[in-house]
Predict the structure.
Amino acid sequence: MLYRKKIVGANLKLNFIDIIKISIIGTCVLILVSACTNPFAPKFDADFDSGGPPISDQSTIEGVFQNFQYAYTFKDTLIYGNLITSDFTFTYRDYENGFDVTWGRDEEMRTTNGLFQNSQRLDLIWNNIVLSTIDTLDANIVRSFNLNITFNPTDVVRIDGRVNVSLKLDPVSNKWRMTRWIDESNF
C-alpha cells in the first residue's frame, strides 16, 4: 500500500508539473496570439453613428430627398417608384430644339430604369435649398444637386443642376411624394 501511494503521488507530481508546463505554454501562446493584429479586420467602432437609417419613412420632405439619393446610389427602382405619385410629371428643357419636354410616371420609370441599368455608378449629392414653400399638404422645393454618372471608367458625366420639385403629403399614409419635377439645369 505504501508503494502504491508513492506511485500515485509521483503521478500527481508529474500531472501537476505537466499542468504547470501546459499553463505556461498556453499563456505564452495566448500572449502571442493576442499581440497579433489583422490589418484586414479592423476593430469594431462602437462609437460609430451613421446618423440614422439609410431609408426614410418619407414622413418629412428631407426623407424624400434621402430616399431619392438612396435609390440612385443603389439603383433601386422600387424605392424610386415609391417617391413619385401616379400623376407625376417630369419636365426638362430641350435646348437644341428650344422647347420643354414633359412625360408622366410610366415614362419616368422606364427612363430611370434605363439609367440604372446602363450606368456602373451613380453619385448624387443634394446641395442647398434655394427656395422652400411648404404648407400642410403641399410643398415646392427648389434645390441644387451634383450628379456623377459613371457609364464606364472613361465615360463619366458630371451634372451640376437644379430641380424645382412639387410634393404632396398623403394624409392617410403620412408620406410625402413628388408630383412634379422641373429640371432647371442648364446644359
Remarks:
- The radius of gyration is 32 Å.
- The beta strands are 84-94, 99-104, 121-134, 138-152, 155-170, 175-183.
- The chain has four helices and six strands.
